[in-house]
Amino acid sequence: MPKIVDHDQYRKELLTKCFDLFANKGYASVTMRQIAQEIGVSTGTLYHYFPSKQALFWQLYDEFNERDTASMNAVLNNIHTLQERITAIFDYIAQNEDYFFKQFLITSDFYQQQDRTEILANETLKRNYELNRDFVAKALETDDPAVVNFAMCLATGIMVVRLFEGNVVEYDEQAQLFHKMLTLYLQDVSLHESDELPVS
Amino acid sequence: MPKIVDHDQYRKELLTKCFDLFANKGYASVTMRQIAQEIGVSTGTLYHYFPSKQALFWQLYDEFNERDTASMNAVLNNIHTLQERITAIFDYIAQNEDYFFKQFLITSDFYQQQDRTEILANETLKRNYELNRDFVAKALETDDPAVVNFAMCLATGIMVVRLFEGNVVEYDEQAQLFHKMLTLYLQDVSLHESDELPVS
Amino acid sequence: MPKIVDHDQYRKELLTKCFDLFANKGYASVTMRQIAQEIGVSTGTLYHYFPSKQALFWQLYDEFNERDTASMNAVLNNIHTLQERITAIFDYIAQNEDYFFKQFLITSDFYQQQDRTEILANETLKRNYELNRDFVAKALETDDPAVVNFAMCLATGIMVVRLFEGNVVEYDEQAQLFHKMLTLYLQDVSLHESDELPVS
Amino acid sequence: MPKIVDHDQYRKELLTKCFDLFANKGYASVTMRQIAQEIGVSTGTLYHYFPSKQALFWQLYDEFNERDTASMNAVLNNIHTLQERITAIFDYIAQNEDYFFKQFLITSDFYQQQDRTEILANETLKRNYELNRDFVAKALETDDPAVVNFAMCLATGIMVVRLFEGNVVEYDEQAQLFHKMLTLYLQDVSLHESDELPVS
DNA sequence: TATGAATGAGAATTCATTCAT
DNA sequence: TATGAATGAATTCTCATTCAT
């Protein structure tokens, strides 16, 4: 294989390299020349791999949404108690916070590139959300969708609040509080469940 | 004497009129011409009231942060049970969801205009957060900061998830769940408090 | 005469006040707002007295060209020797150098506002030059136009060189040199004149 | 490989092409669009070679100051009498008068782009003046700085007066007059020198 | 007279994109 | 493939001028 470079592989490498740029400055404020410079190619080359700035951005968006799921699933291996699993999730977010910030900002930007209905129809986004949901469901060992959503919203909320307000909230504190509440809630539910079950 | 205009008053009216535009398209994608057209003045007039696009954007940001606080406090009048108060807050968000979406997107944009340390040092932003915090604290009748943060993150999270994913979560469902958990938690705490802190 | 203000008098006062501004920044770089601010009126008032920026500039130009002649003639009163008269002229320029710099820059600017033929046809400018010429002729007590021109070019040249290069030339040094040369030259001429006169 | 262009060479060609434009209309009155049109490129290309209008103007100024020096030195080759050398210089100016007018107007404009102290500190300008001085010193075969300055101011003055007043002065007439005066002066000086400085 | 708000054409500059090499 | 020179429409912002008060 003398001079064969995997076009697609290289394309993904280029994407990786401009992730930060978009996250830090926003779609509209980043120029193709800046991108080219940042990743060390000419604008011509950039256009050789991506037909347009929009396309580049969307590929970036898709690419990163896809990656997360894999790494996330490794987190819960060999962890058995609920408390540990909740802690593991929140720790995972805490340790990759900077990455989540960036991904979040890129998503916000992505959002403003098209109108709302298109966004909500976006397949990658939907699938990504479902994967996250399943992951959380598995972690919490519940399939009550309300509880899963609750956890996801809480985690998202903490991240967002920290992004905009700084360290006014802490992951571990909230993780413990959530564990406590959840435990009490699940106990309470199972208590009433035994009452109600015969009826349903 | 010149044409009689209350300069400051008119400035605020103009701000109001371009709120949606920024929310829908984002700072960098909106042009001053578009703004001028949208609010029905010439670009010259726009610059008569705002020295630059940045300045206009920041004034917009400040102006709306100021307004929110005022309107929010009216919500909790004459509501007495915890359940009702929680419901009131979530209802309030639900009913003004569109506004919150916009304000949130504008904040995201605002974020990308400056570097992180400047953001976190921003006084308006900080004050705004504290006001919201106090509001929630009052609503929940607790001054446990962890609980207040918990509620704020949850509410923020629901809003953000709905913004990006659509109606995958519902406010009232989450409100009820939260109320349930919180009640159980507070009971539990008061139970242990009497055990552990007989002195205080 | 209760509220009668001499319109024309006021107009001239306004002109005086913006002389420096034009000299320092050049016609095109000065805005009507700047002028208005500098002289302490509103733009509306400015337009009340001058129909346009061009008109203002031309009136300014005319006004100052006119003024000079008057003041200049006072200089030579009661001075009798050639040396003293030459010294007086150069001193006069030296002491008003800043003013001449400004007037010169304004003239340069004026020049670029219209094409060359219009400039050379300008009556004010022509008359002004002739007045200067007569003044110098009277000072040198010669009516040899070549000599008069020589003196005028020299004086102009010194001023211009100093404007662009700083103090690389000094007025008094050049005045003395000029006096010396002129004296020798006039002696020489009168010597040959007596030879030639009978012929002509 | 991109389109092959000697960037620097091409840049200088572009400069040459916009010399007249600046000379005729002045810095502030010429627009980048006009320049681009005049020299046959797009505005984008113009900005590809010059970062800003100011930069373009300054490079223009430097470039032409550099060129002059070179061409000027060819003038005095193989000319031996003082009279001939003086005539040569004045002829040179006369024949390139149009060019000097333009260069002079550009310098005037350059002047109004920055404040006086910066101008006087400008290295190119200073060096240029010194080169001219040396050139004149060599032509007049004197190193008396007063005489050199005298000649330079006279030449500058003639040019400026002709620029603003038209053909009221003639180069050759003034050249002859100057030659006559200078000869008489130098004779006189050498006469007294032998009296006063027998030692040296 | 005097004010300054309003206008909109036009300025400098940027930038996604194309294309000759 | 890869380069970067070239393009020109679009952007932010300015400013002479007008006009209601």
Automatic annotation (TrEMBL), chains A, B, C, D:
Pfam families: TetR_N. Residues 31-50 bind DNA. Keywords: DNA-binding. Residues 8-68 form the HTH tetR-type domain. It comes from the Bacteria. InterPro entries: DNA-bd_HTH_TetR-type_CS, Homeodomain-like_sf, HTH-type_Tx_Regulator, HTH_TetR. This is TetR/AcrR family transcriptional regulator.
